[in-house]
Every structure is written in C-alpha cells, then in structure tokens.
Amino acid sequence: MDPLAYLFGLEPIGIKFGLENIEALVASLGHPERAYKTIHIAGTNGKGSVTAIVDTALAAAGHRSARYTSPHLVDIRERFVIGGQPVAADALGRAIVDVRAHIDALRAAGTLSVQPTFFEVTTAVAFELFRRAGVDIAVIEVGLGGRLDATNVVSPDATAITSIAFDHEQYLGHSLRAIAGEKAGTIKPGVPVVVGAVTADAEEAIERVARERGAPIVRAWDGVTVDRRRGSQLRLRTPTHDYGEVELALAGAHQIGNAVVAVRLLELIGVPAAAIVEGLARVSWPGRLELRRFPDGREMLLDAAHNPAGAAALASYLHESGDERPVLVFSAMRDKDLDAVLRALLPAVGAVVVTRASNARAADPTELAERVRAIEPALPIVVAPVPRDAIAAAWQLRPRIVVAGSIFLLGDVLRAIDEGSSAP
C-alpha cells in the first residue's frame, strides 16, 4: 500500500487520548525523540504561531531546527518542517513505511492491542524524520490538550502554554480551569514553562501543576512593554533586553501576545537577540490572517479562526481595517460552539456564504444558514454546497472576502485557487 494511503486510512479511527501507544512505538523505534533537544508548545490558540516564530528564530541563530505542527492546510508535508522547508516526499514515505513495520511487529507481539491513530503515527513519523535529518532542536506543537496528547512523550528543555480558551470541551472539560489543567499536563519536572495571558482560574490551575513538579513559571508579560507603532512595527522591551523597534510579520493584534510568548521562550533557551528579531520579522504561518491579492484588485483573507476566541481575534482585525465589510465564506465542524463563533464574526462582515468543508465532521450548510439567520436576520446569506462554489458566489457579491471557520475549509479553498477554479 502507498505510504500516504496507509496513513490517511487511519483517520477514521478518530481521536484516542492516552500515551500507551506512542510510548510503545517510540521505544520500539529507539526513542527518536531523544536524539535532539525539544521545545514543547501547548495552548488553545496561538501555539502554531509561537511554534513558527521559535523555529524561525532558532534557524536564524544557526541551529538545524525542525518543527512539527498540525493540522496541515493542503499537503501533509507541511506538518514536518526541517530547515524551513517541508520534508521531502520520498523521505516522508520511507519513514511511514518503517514506522508501520514497527507497529505491525508490536501488534503481532501483543505489545500494542489496538492500531495507533493517525495522529499517533504522524507524531512518531515526525520524531523519526527529525532524527534522520540530524536536527539539533525541534519545536513540537501539541495536537489536542496536552496531558494525554501523543506529543507529550518528549522531554523538553522548555515548554509554553500560549493561551487558555474554550475549544474541544468534550475532551478537555467545560471550564477554563479544567482546560488549563489538561494543557498544564505538558509541564515537566524542573523544566521552565512560559505562560501567556490567561484568566486567573486558568493561571491557578497551571501554577498548581508547576508547583507540584518544581517547574519555574515565566509569566510572558511580566516586565514587558510593547508599543504598537505603524503597520507591523512594534517597540518591544523585556526584563532582559530592549529590542527597540521590531517588525512582526504576522498580522493582527492577537499576534503580539504570541510574539511575546515566543520571545520569552527564546530568551529562556539562550537565543541571541538578533536572531529573535529576525525570527519575528521573517516568520511565515500560512492561513493566519493571510491576505491574497489578485491582479484585478480583489482580495481574499484566509484565517484559521475556528473557536470563539479565534473568531473574536479575526473580528477585531476586520473592525480595525476600517474598509467595507467583507463577505464571509464560512464552514465549521459540528462539534464547535457554532453560535459563539458566529456571534463574534457576523457583526464584522457584510454578507455570508456558508458551505461544507471536505471533512466528515463538517456541519451542514443549511443548518449553518439557519444559525446565521437567528443571530443576524438582516444579513444576506448564500448557501453553496462545496467550497469552490462558495468562493465563486462570494466574488459575485463583493471584491473583498474572508474565509474562516475551519482549517479544513482553508485547505479546500487553497486547493481550489491552486487549480485555478476560484481565482478571479
């Protein structure tokens, strides 16, 4: 079987919390995750952005660095970035084949009683790819939660918790304290943790775990001043360094908080200030307030907002832009707090085109339209069954559109653009 077909064939297994499978698998592989230093990043929102900034700065400092993130937008190779580039297809294929051989042997021996999930296998593949590439440090983004996430077998040099907000409550709990407790499960004994701006009850849960494990806490904003200047310019000072005026390549006010977490984390592991500044200025993280301009003047803003906090950040950015309110192309997964996401986004847009992302968990567009009408009855709504048609319908309404609600939707739209079917 083709390696990628095998890997994607595991997706129907779904989510399974617990470390038994991944622990057995990395032990069989000879613990590839111990072949290099690691930085472990958890959080509800912002963990991917922080991972990307940290990886970019490490490379600027001369490290052979790598990063593991999820999910991908278009190509699964986006999850495994080494030296700033997605892993080569042949290297990925070989690693999948070898990891599968270990899984088959473990199952035959009875060490594994069940087939590992898609995420467990991709995590093991990432560890193995990074070992084979000879990286000296890898930045690992938590997939879901933290305590029982497959990435939590690493022994990091530092960890971070970027933010705590409501998402995946069916797995992580229905209070910010409970969610924080799950994410604090990534804290390791004696290993420092950088914590972004969180609510008091979330901070209390994180502090309790850190105290139990003797892990020093660095509160990201303690002693930090940031002045927002024109455009992407910031004036940044931390307790250890005055960076002066720096450029942040990631758009949106919410990215300032992510940048502060990344900077404090990089300071913690001894990255030089010049490399930190370069990391902030050169970082690229597609699908996060990513603006695409087309030759005839049309604009498409792509954002991965898929929970209430992410939707609020996107809405804030749209309000700040001051332009005519764009058309929202929207799809979301059924298990999200759809009403809360829509309540945040709808006041910032002028019309909505609802569609269905190519994922089995995607909500029905007709249901989404009903929810939109219940919240903003006067807002124009179009229902388009597939993302390609949704983009075409949105272009008919206005020259400026925003695509949000699901990372899977972003992938569908990017594929459509690449195929030339939805570009102006």
Structural class: alpha/beta
The CATH topology of the largest domain:
UDP-N-acetylmuramoyl-L-alanine:D-glutamate ligase
CATH architecture of the largest domain: 3-Layer(aba) Sandwich
Q: Supply Rg.
A: 21 Å
The biggest beta sheet reads: 8 strands, mixed
List the quaternary state of the chains: single chain
Whole-number count of domains: 2
Task: Compute the separation of the termini in Å.
Answer: 39 Å
Assigned CATH superfamily of the largest domain = Mur-like, catalytic domain
Strand content: 15-25%
> How many runs of DSSP E, i.e. beta strands?
17
Low-confidence stretches: none
Shape: globular
Q: Would you tell me the overall average pLDDT?
A: 94
Number of helices: 15
Helix content: 40-55%
> In CATH, what is the class of the largest domain?
Alpha Beta
Strands of the widest sheet, in order across it, are 4-3-2-5-1-6-7-8
Structure description:
The structure is a single chain. This protein is an alpha/beta fold. It has 2 domains: 3-282, UDP-N-acetylmuramoyl-L-alanine:D-glutamate ligase; 290-418, Protein-Tyrosine Phosphatase, Chain A. The chain is 41% helix and 16% strand. It is built from 15 helices and 17 strands. It has helices at 3-8, 20-28, 47-60, 89-109, 118-133, 169-172, 176-183, 200-213, 254-268, 273-282, 308-321, 338-345, 365-375, 387-397, 407-418, and strands at residues 37-42, 65-68, 80-82, 85-86, 137-141, 158-161, 193-195, 217-219, 225-228, 233-237, 242-247, 290-293, 299-302, 327-330, 351-354, 381-383, 400-404. The strands form 3 sheets. Strands 4-3-2-5-1-6-7-8 form an 8-stranded mixed β-sheet, sandwiched between helices. The protein has a 6-stranded mixed β-sheet with strand order 12-13-17-14-15-16, sandwiched between helices. Strands 9-10-11 form a 3-stranded antiparallel β-sheet, with helices on one face. The radius of gyration is 21 Å and the shape is globular. The mean pLDDT is 94.
